[in-house]
Amino acid sequence: MASTSRTRTGRGRGRGRGSGSSSLPPPPSTLPLIIEEFFIVVYEDPLVKKELPKKFADYLDGQEPAKVYLRAADCGPRLWTVEVLFDGQGRMYLDKGWEKFAIAHGVDFGCYVHFKYEGDDVLTVKVFDETMCRR
């Protein structure tokens, strides 16, 4: 029985709170909001403007770029310039330039498009078909 209690005292993050331990992470409400990666699913015309997740738009709050630069993963250094629209209600859309990028990279109905924010208004993009295989 004594060995069981020894095992329990050394386990879990909650142990040692009363001793002033600083190894615990801060509560989730105090962690910074960092949205680096997200998916959109193409349910409608793949060539019209695309809405990005509200959490990502919120992350950019106050910066609201007029354009972003899309880089297709594993396709070299080429950047595609895409204009961005904000609707005043916290929603963000990829607009002019998206159509050319979508055609060049095979974005179609049922595709999953993965975005990774690299900073400096650059998003790396991977396109997956409806079977979740990379295009």
Description:
With 135 residues, the protein is α+β, with helices and mostly antiparallel strands. The chain has one domain (32-128): DNA-binding pseudobarrel domain (At1g16640 B3 domain), CATH 2.40.330. Helices cover 16% and strands 29% of the residues.
Nutshell version of this structure?
It is built from 3 helices and 7 strands, in the order αββαβββαββ.
CATH topology: At1g16640 B3 domain
Order of the strands making up the biggest sheet? 1-6-7-3-4-5-2
What would you call the shape? globular
Secondary-structure element series: HEEHEEEHEE
Q: What number is the mean pLDDT?
A: 82
Q: Mind telling me the C-alpha Rg?
A: 21 Å
CATH architecture verdict: Beta Barrel
Sum up the structure in keywords.
single chain; DNA-bd_pseudobarrel_sf; 135 residues; TF-B3 domain-containing protein; alpha+beta; At1g16640 B3 domain; 7-stranded mixed sheet; B3_DNA-bd; transcription; globular; transcription regulation; disordered N terminus; 29% strand
